[in-house]
C-alpha cells in the first residue's frame, strides 16, 4: 500500500513539472492546468459520443447482414414468395414504447418476476402484427424504449425468421452459407448480452425476454440444418453466458436482489433442461460450488472473515444444481455417457470430508452439499450407462 502511495505521489509531481515546463508565458500554471482539464474533458465526451455512434452503426450493419442472409436462404430455395411473406421476411423496423420501471422490493420471492407491463399502443400493435403475422413466431409482449431491448427484439426477429425459413426450405442447409453464418453467432451473442444487461438493470420485461430467449436457444440447437461449426460456436457463446450469469448471481450485493436472482436461477434451470446443455452446465455449477467450498473451508481454518453476501448468493447456485440433478434423476431414460467430468468426480469423492469440516459452522450449507452429493451418487450409479 505504501508503494502504491509513493508511485501516485511521484506521478503527481511528474505531471506538475510537465505542466510548468510546457505552459505558455502568458498564462499561469493554474490557468494552463484548467485549460488542459477542459480539453481532456471535452475529448472524453467526444469519445463517449463516438463509441455510441459506433455501437449504433454496428447494430445497423448486423441488421443488414441478417437480412442479407435471410434473403440468401430465400432466393436459393424453391418455395414461392408467399412462403416468405408468411414468415414476415421484411425489414426489422418495429418501434418500442417506453414503460414505467418498477423497483424490486426484495420481499417477494415468487418464481416469476413481476410482469405488470403497460399495454402497447395501437400503433405498436399494428407494427408487430406486420412483422410477425405467423403464430409460430415468438415475440416479447413487453416493449420499452432503451436501445438494449430494441436490439434484443431485432435479434429475436432474425433468429425466428431463420428457423422458420429453414423449416420451409427442406433442401436448404445453412452449411451451404458457411461464410455468412457468423451473423448467426453475432446475433445470438447480442441477444444473450442483452439478457445479462436486463438482469443487471431489472425491468418488468426481463421474464418475458428470458422465456423467449431460451425458447430460441432450444430451437436453434435442435435445428438439424445448422452446420456443425456454427453449432459449436453457438455452444461456446452459450457457455460463456452461463459462466457470466453464475458470476453475476454470486457478485450481486444489492439489498433488493433476491427476486431477480430467482429469475436468473430459473434461467439456469431452463437451460440445463436442454439435452445438449444439461451435462456441461451441471459441471460448471458444481465447479463453482467446489471453488466456493474450498474458499469457505480456508476461511474456517484461518478464522478469517468471509463475504456474507456471497454466502447468501451461493444458495441460488445450489438450488439450481439441486433442481437440475433432480431433473436428471427423474428422467425416464438413462444417460448414454458420463454426466460428470473428472474435476466433478474428484470433488464428489472428497465431499463427505468437506461436509464434516464445515457442518459445525455452516450447517445449512453443509445440508445442501449433502443433498447434492446424494443426488449425484444416485445419478452416477443408476442413471449413467458405462461407456
UniProtKB/TrEMBL annotation:
Secretion signal span: 1-22
Keywords: Meiosis, Signal
Protein's GO biological process: DNA recombination; homologous chromosome pairing at meiosis; meiotic DNA double-strand break formation; oogenesis; spermatogenesis
UniProt xrefs under InterPro entries: MEI4 (IPR025888)
Membrane-spanning residues: none
GO cellular component: lateral element
Domain of life from the UniProt record: Eukaryota
Keyword Signal on entry: yes
Protein family according to the UniProt entry: Belongs to the MEI4L family.
Protein name: Meiosis-specific protein MEI4
Species this protein is from: Xenopus laevis
Amino acid at each position: 500500500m505504501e508503494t502504491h502511495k509513493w508511485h501516485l505521489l511521484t506521478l503527481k509531481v511528474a505531471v506538475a513539472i510537465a505542466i510548468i515546463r510546457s505552459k505558455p508565458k502568458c498564462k499561469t500554471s493554474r490557468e494552463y492546468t484548467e485549460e488542459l482539464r477542459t480539453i481532456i474533458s471535452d475529448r472524453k465526451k467526444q469519445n463517449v459520443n463516438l463509441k455510441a455512434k459506433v455501437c449504433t452503426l454496428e447494430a445497423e450493419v448486423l441488421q443488414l447482414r441478417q437480412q442479407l442472409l435471410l434473403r440468401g436462404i430465400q432466393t436459393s430455395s424453391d418455395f414461392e414468395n408467399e412462403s416468405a411473406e408468411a414468415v414476415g421476411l421484411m425489414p426489422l423496423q418495429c418501434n418500442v414504447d417506453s414503460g414505467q420501471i418498477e423497483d424490486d422490493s426484495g420481499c417477494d420471492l415468487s418464481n416469476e418476476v413481476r410482469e405488470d407491463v403497460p399495454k402497447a399502443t395501437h400503433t405498436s400493435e399494428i407494427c408487430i402484427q406486420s412483422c410477425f403475422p405467423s403464430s409460430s413466431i415468438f415475440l416479447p409482449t413487453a416493449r420499452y424504449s432503451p436501445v438494449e431491448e430494441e436490439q434484443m427484439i431485432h435479434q429475436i426477429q432474425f433468429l425466428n425468421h431463420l428457423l422458420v425459413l429453414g423449416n420451409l426450405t427442406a433442401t436448404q442447409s445453412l452449411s451451404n452459407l458457411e461464410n455468412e453464418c457468423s451473423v448467426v453467432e453475432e446475433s445470438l451473442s447480442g441477444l444473450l448480452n442483452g439478457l445479462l444487461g436486463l438482469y443487471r438493470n431489472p425491468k418488468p420485461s426481463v421474464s418475458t425476454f428470458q422465456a423467449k430467449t431460451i425458447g430460441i436457444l432450444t430451437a436453434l440447437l435442435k435445428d438439424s440444418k445448422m452446420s456443425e461449426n456454427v453449432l459449436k460456436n453457438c455452444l461456446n457463446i452459450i457457455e460463456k453466458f452461463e459462466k457470466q450469469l453464475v458470476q453475476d448471481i454470486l457478485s450481486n450485493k444489492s439489498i433488493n436482489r433476491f427476486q431477480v436472482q430467482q429469475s436468473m436461477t430459473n434461467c439456469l434451470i431452463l437451460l440445463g433442461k436442454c439435452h445438449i446443455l444439461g451435462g456441461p452446465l451441471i459441471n460448471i455449477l458444481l465447479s463453482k460450488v467446489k471453488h466456493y467450498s474450498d474458499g469457505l473451508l480456508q476461511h474456517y481454518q484461518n478464522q478469517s472473515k468471509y463475504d456474507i453476501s456471497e454466502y447468501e448468493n451461493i444458495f441460488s447456485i445450489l438450488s439450481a444444481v439441486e433442481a437440475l440433478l433432480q431433473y436428471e434423476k427423474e428422467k425416464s431414460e438413462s444417460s448414454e455417457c458420463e454426466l460428470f467430468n473428472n474435476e466433478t468426480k474428484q470433488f464428489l469423492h472428497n465431499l463427505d470430508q468437506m461436509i464434516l469440516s464445515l457442518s459445525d459452522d455452516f450447517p445449512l450449507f453443509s445440508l445442501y452439499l449433502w443433498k447434492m452429493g446424494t443426488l449425484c451418487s444416485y445419478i452416477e450409479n443408476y442413471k449413467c450407462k458405462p461407456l
